[in-house]
Structures are given as structure tokens and as C-alpha cells.
Amino acid sequence: MASSSRDEFSSSFGFVMAAAGSAVGLGNIWGFPTQTAENGGAAFVLVYILLAFLVGYPVLMAEFTIGRHTRMAPPDAYKKLGGGQSYFIIGLLGLVTVGIILSFYSIIAGGMVAYFVEPIGRILGLDGVADWVVSQNTTSNFVFMTIFFLFTLLIVSGGVSKGIEKWSKRFMPLLFMLFIVLVVYVLTLDGAMEGARVYLLPDFDKVFDPQLLTSAMGQAFFSLSLGVGGMLVYGSYTSDKANLTRLGWLVTLCDIGVAIIAGFLIIPAMYAASSLGTEIFDANGALISGPNLIFQVLPSLFDSMGPIGVFVAFVFFLLMSIAALTSSMSMLEAVVAYVVDRTQVPRKRATWYTGGVFWVIAVVIVFNYEALFGLVVTAATEYAQPFLGLAIVVFAGWIIRKNVLLNELKKGQPEIEKTFFYKIWPIFLKVVCPILILLVFLQTFNF
Ligand code: PFF
């Protein structure tokens, strides 16, 4: 059961950096812009913003408060608040899901690390090594996935305040800085403005397109790291004095803000690449997305920029690697927290054991990439995460006694009773969020 000497974030700033670090990741900088390009441009952006505020934020707040109230990881936290055996299983399902997300995420993140190493190889004149590094064959995928895993393990094994918080406080400001510099630079490139125009142009016919709604909901859950325990566990390490609603706002705004601004990085960069002769449309006339976008279109843009391209590539892939690392830390922590709470195994060892299990899953996926990769991504993000999110709102709205969560919020915010949020949050958890999630979820299955 929960140990008495549980680690805690040392400051609200540290907590926000860690939680924003979890939220801001490949899902924002890569996933969001490509989803936007595929789903009617600004129409998708609008639906996404709406869902992030109407569903994402209330669910995030439920996770933070459940975590802080119970000071436990998901399965036990749900059990303690009256969830019984069924919610214990749902909690475990969340941990399995987050482990699977960690496994496929590390493979993509390994690719980012490889492309970050490549320009260094070129500068050192090691062209043969640089070519192998980005060859994307099974061996190089395996090597860089493992390197990325090791970084994640080293940081998480340091603990919450001395590992996750310390590194998030260093990485996140650096990430924001690199990000802004890159966006400003890319927008000055020839052809970039055409990309910005395409990004901003809404195709309103698509607003009620079932595909758009499913993608936007999935994106909101993935991007805010919801349903799988990472945010709940971070909540379990916050001080009672912390103003959770404000911190939750900051995390949500960072997440949405980075996603929207990333649209001004990726889509204009694609059009800039196009003006230099790179093909940016696939056989169906749609903008290239997925791995080909990041690992082919953008590198060909960087290549065609001359010497400065090496530097831009280095900054871009460093940014992506950092964004991925602060997210993977929270995925691993969700499961490590449970193992540490539950067993006598010391934290360092628990981290290596847990990480080892997920690393093996990642190895299996790397070696069966064609058959497994797409499958696990869809299963985890389009089905498991929204289902788990629905389970959490039903739990928070209907199963936990109403005052438990509201009283938890009051600890750090005695004045909260007067706020609008205090009055509407329970209604959102009980009615609005479940209905919205259910509607989107059902049409994913074509009901
Ligand atoms: N929010 C991360 C992203 O947008 O890339 C992904 C993520 C992190 C999902 C942590 C789930 C999680 F527990």
C-alpha cells in the first residue's frame, strides 16, 4: 500500500513543467498538424479546442484531484474511492495501455534521436555512420529505441523531485525556446505562407464528419495524456497547498498552445519543401503525413537549405527528442508508482524492472513493425484511451461521492466555492463529458 515517505514535487512550477512535459509531446508537434491537414484544416482546430476545454480539462482535473486525494496510483486509487473490483481492473487496463503507448512511442522517439545524431555525424565527417543512423532499418530502429528507453529509465529512476521534476524544469523552458525560434525561422522561408494559409483555411463541411470528431477526441485524450494514469499519478505527488484548477489550466493552455503553434511550423515547412521541389502530396492528393512527413519531407527540406539546414535539422530533432522524453517519463512513472506503492521493491530497481518489460514489448514491435505498429497505435489511442477516459468521468461523476473531489480542491483554494468552475465541474463530469465521449466513441464503431 502507499508508503508514508512518498516523494512530492517541490514546487508548483516543477509540477506544471512535469505535467506540461507529459502533455506536450510528439502528439502536439507531429500528430496535431498532420491530423489538421487531413481533417479540414482550421475546422479540425476549432473542434479540437472545443473538445480539449469541454472534455479534456474536466477529465484532467478529475485525474489530478483523485491522485492528490488518494496519494496512490490508479488501480488502488480507484479502489480506495469505492470503485470496487471493476475499477481495479480498469486501473490495471490503464497501466497496460500506458505501457503499450510507451513502447510504440519510444520507437518513433528513437527515430527523432537518430535524426538528431545524424547532423553531428555529418559535421564530424562520418558520413557512412550518419547514413546508417537514419537508414530506418530494423537494427537502427532497435538501437535508437533502446537509447531513448535508457534516457527515460535513467531520469525516472532518479525519483519524482530529483529525476522527473529536475529534468522537466530544465527541458521544458529549452523546448519552448527552441520551438519559438524554429517557428519564426520557418515562417520566413519561401512558400511557408502558403502553408500557413492552408492551415488556417477551414473546411466547414467537415465539422460534423465522423472521422474528424473521432480524430479530434482521440487527439485531445492523447495530447493531454488522459485516462492511462500518468496525470493521476503526477497529481498524487502535488502538495495540498497547490491550486489545482489553476495548474490544470496552465497545463491545458500549454498543451493546446503548442499544438496550434506547431501547425505554423510543420505545415508551412511542408510547403517550403514543396517550393524547393519535394513532393508533399500522396497518391490521393492528400498532404503526406505519418512517418514519411517527419522522416522524409522535413529532412529533404533541411538538406536543400545548404549548411544552415544541418543546424536547423539538429534543432528540430533535438526539440522533438526532448518533447518525447518529457512525455515518456510520465508514461513510465505511472506504472513505476504502482509498483513502488505496492511492493517493497526500491524505486530504482522497480524502474528498471518495469522499463525492462515495456522495452521487451517495444523490441517485439520493432521486429514485427509492419504487422504490429499500426495495430497497437490504433488499439491504444483510438479505443483504449477514450474508453478509459469515459470510465474515469463516470467514476468521478457518479461513483465517488460528489463532495470528496470538491473538498479536495478546496484544500489549496479555500475561495473556490465562489467560482464558476466549482459549480459546473460536477455537471460536466456527470453529464456533459460522458455524453460527448460516448457520442464520439459510438460513431467510431459506426453505430
Ligand atoms: N501527451 C503525449 C503527446 O502528446 O505526445 C503522449 C502521452 C503522454 C500519452 C503520456 C499518454 C501518456 F500517459
Automatic annotation (TrEMBL):
<keyword id="KW-1133">Transmembrane helix</keyword>
<feature type="transmembrane region" description="Helical">
    <location>
        <begin position="308"/>
        <end position="340"/>
    </location>
</feature>
<dbReference type="Pfam" id="PF00209">
    <property type="entry name" value="SNF"/>
</dbReference>
<feature type="transmembrane region" description="Helical">
    <location>
        <begin position="172"/>
        <end position="192"/>
    </location>
</feature>
<dbReference type="GO" id="GO:0016020">
    <property type="term" value="C:membrane"/>
</dbReference>
<feature type="transmembrane region" description="Helical">
    <location>
        <begin position="142"/>
        <end position="160"/>
    </location>
</feature>
<dbReference type="InterPro" id="IPR000175">
    <property type="entry name" value="Na/ntran_symport"/>
</dbReference>
<feature type="transmembrane region" description="Helical">
    <location>
        <begin position="420"/>
        <end position="442"/>
    </location>
</feature>
<feature type="transmembrane region" description="Helical">
    <location>
        <begin position="87"/>
        <end position="117"/>
    </location>
</feature>
<protein>
    <submittedName>
        <fullName>Transporter</fullName>
    </submittedName>
</protein>
<feature type="transmembrane region" description="Helical">
    <location>
        <begin position="212"/>
        <end position="235"/>
    </location>
</feature>
<keyword id="KW-0812">Transmembrane</keyword>
<feature type="transmembrane region" description="Helical">
    <location>
        <begin position="352"/>
        <end position="377"/>
    </location>
</feature>
<feature type="transmembrane region" description="Helical">
    <location>
        <begin position="383"/>
        <end position="400"/>
    </location>
</feature>
<keyword id="KW-0813">Transport</keyword>
<dbReference type="InterPro" id="IPR037272">
    <property type="entry name" value="SNS_sf"/>
</dbReference>
<keyword id="KW-0472">Membrane</keyword>
<feature type="transmembrane region" description="Helical">
    <location>
        <begin position="42"/>
        <end position="66"/>
    </location>
</feature>
<feature type="transmembrane region" description="Helical">
    <location>
        <begin position="12"/>
        <end position="30"/>
    </location>
</feature>
<dbReference type="InterPro" id="IPR047218">
    <property type="entry name" value="YocR/YhdH-like"/>
</dbReference>
<feature type="transmembrane region" description="Helical">
    <location>
        <begin position="247"/>
        <end position="271"/>
    </location>
</feature>
